[in-house]
Amino acid sequence: MELLTPKTAGQWLTTAVEEARAGLAEGGIPIGAALYGADGTVLGRGHNRRVQDDDPSLHAETAAFRNAGRQRSYRGTTMVTTLSPCWYCSGLVRQFGISRVVVGEDRTFRGGQEWLARHGVDIVVLDDQECVAMMTEFITTHRAVWNEDIGA
Fold it and tell me: Using CA of residue 95, residue 98, residue 100, residue 103, what is the dihedral sign?
């Protein structure tokens, strides 16, 4: 797996941020994700649709993964997400052998990223200020919905 440059990581995060904004505009939770192939192409992208679809399993990473369709292998792929993946999404990354996770921010929530790292997944945390601001605002104004989504 090639090293990820800061420029490329930032460009890929832009895709996930666009998805997060789309989710927020739909009345949902502003978390977005994209799955990139080893060659840098977008395989799938999506956003958290738990509120919109009344589906507790439709997290951003899950949506991006589903939208990517079946792949022969996930080795060398990168999941880019605006927020540290929860345990559910961390399990998805591990189950399918996704090689790297780029995290927009982990200040407002830190899911299973350390566990993933311990199991060989490359974790890149960007500490993106837009991602932090988007989640901080959402958590402040929609505490009950946030707590429901993370299982608190």
Answer: negative
